[in-house]
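We emphasize that the prediction below concerns an isolated chain of 108 residues; any contacts that depend on oligomerization or on bound cofactors are therefore not represented. The input was used exactly as deposited, without trimming of termini.
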Amino acid sequence: MQIHVRDDAGREQKRSVKRHQFPITAAYAFTDYRSQGQTLQHVIIDIASPPTGGLSLFDLYVALSRSRGRSTIRLLRQFDNKVFQASHCVELLAEDDRLKDQDEMTKH
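Result of the prediction step, given as a token string:
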């Protein structure tokens, strides 16, 4: 489109202006913790390492298991494969063992 503007000297000049419009789709974002217990039609997942803390295998499982199937999951960006080769948190494993012992004691 053509527009008319005045320069510093007061002379009128023609300028061309191009406008680009990008389609926007409404979306909702939340954490893997918030998504527990939900099944979503389509998910876009960002499994890149966060700036603080880190991702555990439990976090990855929750994030990747929220959709109805592999065909409805999209990854936002590239990620480090080492994230899937990490071992479980020692504290969580110890808590899991403690809960198993409590369960056995309760059953007995």
